[in-house]
Amino acid sequence: MPENFGAYIGFAITVIWFVGIIVWCINRNFGKTKSVQATIVHKQITEDFSKYSANGKSYHYYVTFQFNGKRRSFKVSEFSYKGYNVGEKGTLKYKSDRLIDFH
Questions:
Q1: Residue 13, by phi and psi: left (phi above 0), alpha (psi -120 to 50) or beta?
Q2: What are the residue boundaries of the structural domains of the chain, listed by start?
Q3: What is the 3-state secondary structure (H, E, C) of the chain?
Q4: How far is CA 10 from CA 6, 14, 38, 62, 67, in A?
Q5: Residue 89, pLDDT score
Q6: From CA 40, how far away is CA 59, in angstroms rounded?
Q7: Cα–Cα dist 97/40, whole Å
Q8: d(CA 98, CA 45)
Q9: pLDDT, tens only, 49-101
Q10: 86, 40 Cβ separation under 8 angstroms
Q11: How far apart are CA 46 and CA 61, in angstroms?
Q12: With bands split at pLDDT 50, 70 and 90, how would you rate the model's confidence at 2?
């Protein structure tokens, strides 16, 4: 076994990781926008403690949709979160892990 075998393995893992990140970014930014009929089935607020926010807390808002027998959650703004209601039905447009529109 060569002396630098561990270095080769480390390099290969780094290259695979880097290629994976590039593929993920391309899919996230240039992937197809999907449009489906969906129902809002759940809303959730999570709280994180952070030394960088003014009061030491930050909040994350999630809305879960059900369509085609699947459930999918999206992170949304506080403003958008307040406008969604559980049980509401409409057309969901999304790309990768980003909610584009729901009406």
A1: alpha
A2: 1-31, 34-102
A3: CCCCHHHHHHHHHHHHHHHHHHHHHHHHHHCCCEEEEEEEEEEEEEEEECCCCCCCEEEEEEEEEEECCEEEEEEECHHHHHHCCCCCEEEEEEECCEEEEEC
A4: 6, 6, 44, 37, 41
A5: 97
A6: 20
A7: 16
A8: 17
A9: 877 767 778 889 999 999 999 999 999 999 999 999 999 999 999 998 889 99
A10: yes
A11: 7
A12: low
Residue type for position 44: Q
- In this prediction the pTM is 0.72
Q: 76 vs 20, 29, 30, 40, 97, CA distance in Å?
A: 25, 17, 20, 13, 11
CATH of domain 34-102: 2.40.50.660
Number of residues written out for the chain: 103
Pairing of strands 89-95, 98-102: antiparallel
Which residue matches tokens 């979160």? 81
Q: Do 64 and 72 form a contact (C-beta atoms < 8 A)?
A: yes
How many other CB atoms are found less than 10 A from the CB of residue 56?
10
